[in-house]
Amino acid sequence: MRYQFSNTELTHQIRRNQIAQTCQANRARSRKRRVLTSDDLKHLVVDEDHEMIYCYVPKVACTNWKRVMMVLTGRGKYTDPMEIPANEAHVSSNLKTLNQYSIPEINHRLKNYLKFMFVREPFERLVSAYRNKFTRRYNTSFHKRYGTKIVRRQRKNATQEALVKGDDVKFEEFVGYLIDPYTQKEEPFNEHWETVSSLCHPCHIHYNLIGKYETLQEDASYILHLAGVGDYITFPTYAKSTRTTDEMTAQFFQNISAAFQTKLFNLYKLDFVMFNYSVPSYLKLA
Q1: Is residue 93 over pLDDT 50?
Q2: Measured between alpha carbons, how far is 192 from 158 in angstroms, rounded to an integer?
């Protein structure tokens, strides 16, 4: 078993080094020093029984990871992650997050628990979020909360219906909204399109393992093995035919101007560099 994972150990060491180097370079450039607040820890799911902390990133297999964490923390309530309905996995009271602890308890867990997160190619994740939140008829809460705002700001001569419903946001309008400096001044990005570096704070929290969506099964097996639960829990296999691919992402970017693409890339640049994703070949930078 030990030999089988030696390459994986090396891979995770390389990923940790890449984060450390990026954080160091970033600190050298930035005068700002940040201290984590309780609000910064709300994405860190805690499993007391197996001493694990998982930082969830929406659109990076987080539903299945939350299901797995519910099995691990449920003390026998669940045995099969796929028995848990997706909407139940997202009920916040079903899992405990690090911001619910006292400061000494937080520090103890950050120091001693196995900490992991999963990342994905930033623009693929962004297109996945757009497709899920703005092109599915059932996501009316997102249409009302964000769609109407995006239409109002980004669309000239919008119809009254579009302004009320917000259910037909174009990808270009979504990008326009993201790169508009006023957007982040008004409120933080929604977690579905917030950068991974802002959700999980890898410059402040030293993760033991950084899994990638591209090697999801392999990385998930390794993490479950390290947690000592690999023999009785298997990470659900991904068989979704509608999932967002690199080719699909390239198509979405076809009609986005080079100026917009450049601004968008700059917003997510830290994630690209920190998690070692190369600049997409389809990108036109101004």
Answers
A1: yes
A2: 25
Contact 260, 187 (CB under 8 A): no
**Residue 247 CA to chain centroid, in angstroms?**
20
Quote the DSSP letter at residue 95: S
Element housing 247 (H / E): helix 246-253
CA distance 286 to 282: 13
Among 97, 37, 39, 38, smallest CA distance to 66 is for 97
**Residues whose CB falls within 8 Å of the CB of residue 1, separated by 6 or more in sequence, listed in order:** 225
The dihedral over CA atoms of 267, 23, 198, 113, expressed in degrees to the nearest 10, equals 160
Nearest Cα to 234, choosing from 112, 5, 67, 95?
67
Q: What is the pLDDT of residue 138?
A: 85
Task: Check residue 239 and give its pLDDT.
Answer: 64
> How many CB atoms are located within 10 Å of the residue 21 CB?
12
CA 285/CA 172 separation, integer angstroms: 16
**How confident is the model over 199-211, as pLDDT tens digits?**
999 999 999 999 9
User: CA–CA separation, 66 vs 129, rounded Å?
Assistant: 18
Residues 6+ away with beta carbon under 8 Å from 25: none
